[in-house]
Amino acid sequence: MRSQLRWRLCWENELQLADHIELADFFRKTYGPTGAFNGKPFAGNRSWAGARPELRAIGYDSRGVAAHMGLLRRFIKVGEVDQLVGELGLYGVRPDLEGLGISLSFRVVYPVLQELGVPFAFGTVRHALRNHIERFFRDDLATIVSGVRVRSTQAEVYPDLPPTRLEDVLVVVLPVTRPMSDWPTGAIIDRNGPEL
């Protein structure tokens, strides 16, 4: 039987060193199995990979951190339009709870998005997660925007990598205070910064 999750919403400046240590360990264990490089950003006490979130929804159970979703308000450029969004990222769920994490964490974060007054929530996921995302959003809560690539700056500057990357990922948009019909069109979304 799965344990009951207790959610904590916290601003980034409310986290203590012990929180970052616990979250870094959670992300190494969660992202590491998806590829050796994926767990690397969480070395030491670092609990973020690219852009640092401003708000976190952290789910705990008797074993510690069970799920996480980060939120960062930012302007992205969609085609030629500067669009304010609440970017959702740093999503993770412990393997024994898969199937519950995204729906639970989103239910915790959505009221915060409404309070913040952002028109849309925006996130990206790998194509391999399409079925998982579609199952969660089968009630038309969110839209997967196809045929769009996303440009981001690299989180770190490496001499052998370009300063930006252009990715073919699934773009997920959730209307918050404006309808999906107001989402701008464009073949490229520019984060003008690193991925959350």
TrEMBL record:
UniProt KW Acyltransferase keyword: yes
EC code(s) of this entry: 2.3.1.-
A family per Pfam: NodA
Principal place of residence: cytoplasm
Subcellular location(s) of the protein: Cytoplasm
Top-level taxon: Bacteria
Listed InterPro entries: NodA, Nodulation_prot_NodA_CS
Signal peptide residue numbers: none
Keyword Transmembrane (UniProt): no
Family designation: Belongs to the NodA family.
Function text: N-acyltransferase required for nodulation. Acts in the production of a small, heat-stable compound (Nod) that stimulates mitosis in various plant protoplasts.
GO cellular component labels: cytosol
Record-given protein name: Nodulation protein A
MF terms in GO: acyltransferase activity
Enzyme class: transferase
NCBIfam families from the UniProt entry: nodulat_NodA (TIGR04245), PRK00756.1 (NF001974)
Keywords annotated in UniProt: Acyltransferase, Cytoplasm, Nodulation, Transferase
